[in-house]
Design brief:
Elements lengths: L13 E7 L2 E7 L5 H12 L6 E7 L3 E10 L4 E4 L19 E6 L6 E3 L17 E3 L13 E8 L4 H4 L8 E5 L8 H6 L1
Antiparallel strand pairs: 1-2, 2-10, 3-4, 4-5, 4-9, 6-9, 6-10, 7-8
């Protein structure tokens, strides 16, 4: 999208729009600062991978995350999409401040357990495979900084102290246009 005359922000290089059921979220992308992360995001966006996407992680005062989980509106079911692109190399440098958009990493959990329903039966994914989760006492990602795929998150607060350092830093590659001190109306409606 040509940006001439569209934004008053001097740092606007490229823009993308996420259309949600709560309204639009305009993103200002920084391809000169995080070229691989921006390319990865645009590959997924332009390839339709974010159509019917669900923001599946909401952590108050921290982040909202989306990308790989989608809704099948006809069946009212959720499903994961498979990553179709190689993971970009981690490009930390833009601080994970309030309103920034960053690549989520898959990493590797240090300890997993099989998830069970209240009746004790195994929880299965849409392909019939057992679902696993990280044990709370050993929650954490283990050294896989170049593991970003489809997921991204929007920081709801200044997360720089944590996310600029954890797992070699999280690559922020965009920011939400109009994200002010009190947040953003659409992002706030999602949370």
């Amino acid at each position: 999208i040509p940006l001439t005359g569209k934004f008053a922000d001097a740092d606007s290089e490229l823009a993308a729009r996420l259309v949600t059921t709560k309204g639009n979220i305009d993103l200002l992308l920084y391809p000169s600062l995080a070229p691989q992360a921006v390319t990865n995001f645009l590959n997924h966006l332009l390839g339709g991978d974010y159509n019917d996407m669900v923001f599946h992680r909401h952590s108050a005062g921290f982040v909202i995350q989306g990308g790989s989980i989608h809704a099948n509106l006809a069946t009212n079911n959720l499903f994961n999409i498979q990553n179709r692109f190689p993971s970009p190399i981690n490009e930390p440098g833009i601080s994970n401040l309030k309103g920034t958009v960053a690549a989520a990493k898959t990493g590797a959990r240090s300890s997993l357990y099989p998830v069970k329903n209240d009746n004790g039966t195994a929880v299965l994914d849409n392909l019939g495979a057992q679902v696993y989760a990280a044990k709370e006492d050993s929650f954490g990602y283990v050294g896989n900084p170049d593991s970003a795929t489809t997921d991204f998150f929007i920081s709801l607060a200044d997360n720089s102290a944590n996310l600029d350092n954890q797992n070699s830093g999280f690559t922020a590659y965009a920011r939400v246009a109009g994200f002010g001190v009190s947040g953003h109306p659409v992002v706030s409606a999602i949370t």
